[in-house]
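Example 3.2
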Amino acid sequence: MINNVATPTKMGTYLANGVIPIFSSSIWSYNCLSKKYGYLCCVEGCNVMDKIKELMDKKIEKDQILKEYKRLFFEYYNKQKYIEELSIFFLTKACYIISFILSFF
């Protein structure tokens, strides 16, 4: 199981080793990811044991896990993606600030 303190490094370690992580819905970004991926086990409230039983009853396809986790690493742990998103964010803010300053002239 993963808690707020252990993420994100623990999640990355589990995924890299093919372990199906079990985590609380309070870990927001992983909760959102769990809706897209079948081999992430998000639990909340009283459904912990039900979700774990559901996972244990599921036929585990190792090739599917590998495919899914590769896609997750490319989409979520992609350094270039975050660099681009931050660049756009800061460029947008810089343009806004420059426009604001120039409006006084």
